[in-house]
TrEMBL record:
SUPFAM superfamilies to which the protein is assigned, alphabetical: S-adenosyl-L-methionine-dependent methyltransferases
Keyword Methyltransferase: yes
PANTHER family the record matches: TRANS-ACONITATE 2-METHYLTRANSFERASE-RELATED (PTHR43861)
Record-linked InterPro entries: Methyltranfer_dom, SAM-dependent_MTases_sf
Record's signal peptide: 1-30
Biological process terms in GO annotation: methylation
Record key words, sorted: Methyltransferase, Signal, Transferase
Entry EC no(s): 2.1.1.-
Enzyme class: transferase
Descriptive protein name: Class I SAM-dependent methyltransferase
Pfam families per record: Methyltransf_31 (PF13847)
Recorded superkingdom: Bacteria
Length: 250
């Protein structure tokens, strides 16, 4: 009888350990699934990837074939890019990153404003990287450094930037949360992140819907990643000008 009782107790103890182990494993699995659920999927919309972040479908990247459109002769008139640059509050010694620099339409104009500083032209697509390097050499701008970025990193030193900006780029980021965290690390304390996006609130802005964003959506996504709205300007013809300040994480 004692042996039988001992065996029963032993079996119960083993079952209890197994239950605890499976429960812990289930909790770990739930945490993994919760983390993976940062992004969800849907049927792709026009120009979309089908990948969704905080209720917004991520747009497909405009390839290097769109370089001519980025450098179109009417861009200044349509977007007033010089006004946007004046609103960046640049100082001559600032260190800046143009993320998704493309052909360098903004990079080289900003470089002229920071002669004692530096601008990183961060670009993911190899053809644009090569074009940026060639153009930088042609212009003889020693304060421009072309950087091959990643889908989750901008590949610049931590705590090095006074300002990072993205012009009609953020809505295409494959991993927006990871990129915002990378930018957060790259900014100095009090550093700024500027997003310029075509206004989704305005039906007269003739851009595909997934390549536009509302100010409310931009604010929601950035506040979730350690940024606070610092400056908003509504004077550009068709784009939002939304500058955020890097906040210290608690």
């Amino acid at each position: 009888m004692k042996t039988s009782s001992y065996q029963s107790t032993k079996q119960l103890f083993v079952l209890l350990l197994l239950w605890l182990f499976l429960g812990a494993g289930g909790a770990c699995q739930a945490q993994v699934e919760q983390k993976a659920a940062i992004y969800t999927t849907k049927s792709p919309g026009t120009g979309g990837t089908g990948k969704v972040y905080m209720g917004r479908e991520i747009a497909r990247v405009i390839g290097t074939g769109g370089g001519g459109w980025l450098d179109r002769s009417t861009r200044q008139e349509e977007e007033n890019s010089l006004r946007a640059i004046d609103s960046m509050m640049l100082s001559p010694q600032n260190v800046v990153a143009d993320i998704g620099a493309g052909t360098g339409f903004y990079t080289f104009r900003v470089a002229e404003k920071i002669p004692k500083g530096k601008i990183y032209a961060v670009e993911l697509q190899d053809a644009f990287v090569s074009a940026l390097k060639k153009r930088s050499q042609e212009l003889g701008l020693s304060n421009v450094e072309v950087v091959k970025g990643g889908t989750k990193s901008i590949n610049v030193p931590d705590a090095s930037l006074d300002l990072a900006f993205m012009v009609d780029v953020y809505h295409e980021l494959e991993y927006p949360q990871e990129m915002l965290q990378a930018i957060h690390r790259a900014l100095k304390p009090g550093g700024k992140l500027l997003l310029m996006e075509y206004r989704a609130e305005d039906p007269k802005v003739a851009i595909r819907e997934l390549h536009k964003m509302t100010a409310e959506q931009v604010k929601k996504e950035l506040e979730a990643n350690g940024f606070k709205l610092f400056k908003r300007e509504d004077s550009l013809p068709i784009q939002h000008f939304l500058m955020f300040e890097r906040m210290e994480k608690k």
